[in-house]
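Lecture 7 notes: from sequence to structure.

We start with a single chain of 89 residues. Read the sequence below before looking at the structure.
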Amino acid sequence: MDSFIMIPLSVLDSSLPTKAILLFGLLMSNSKQYGYAYGRNQYYAERLNCSTRTITKLLKILEDHYYITIEDGQSFKRRIKINQERLTN
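Now the structure, written as tokens:
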């Protein structure tokens, strides 16, 4: 069975860069089990075929637009949470 990600229309219709939208979909998918995503930048970079530096920039964009909240951002135990309230507005 093929895997897929779901991206809310509010995010898809936003002015975010395409890779930021795809990263958001991956984060949503990865946060289903625990309520937060915890993957390393290297994992997301491999999935999106880009550099870890690009992932860092995309995470910052998503955070600046209030789509995600990053807890313990400098730790290997960081948690990336989806701001559900942002998806309804």
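The mean pLDDT is 90. Keep this in mind for problem set 3.
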